[in-house]
Amino acid sequence: MKVTSLPLAAAAAGVALLSTQPATASPLPHQLSFGDSPSLSTTFSLLSSLTSASLDVFTPRLVQTAHDEAPYWGFPHYLRWKGVRFFDVTDHLDANGQDVLLAHSLLSATSNEKKTSSFPSKLSYQKQVGSVHANISESGPRANIAAFTSFTNRYYKSGSGKQSQQWLLAKVKEITSVDENITVEEFEHPWGQNSIIAKIPATDSKAAEENGRIVVGSHQDSVNLIFPYLPAPGADDDGSGTVTQLESLRALLASGWKPSHSNVEFHFYSAEEGGLLGSQAVARSYAESGKKVRAMSQFDMTAFIKAGTNATIGVITDVVSPELTAFNRLLIEGYLDVPWVDTQLGYAGSDHASWTKVGVPSAFSVEATFGDCNLKRIHTTSDTFTHDEYSFEHILRFSRLSSAFIIELAGWGK
Question: The whole model's pTM is what?
Answer without folding.
Answer: 0.87
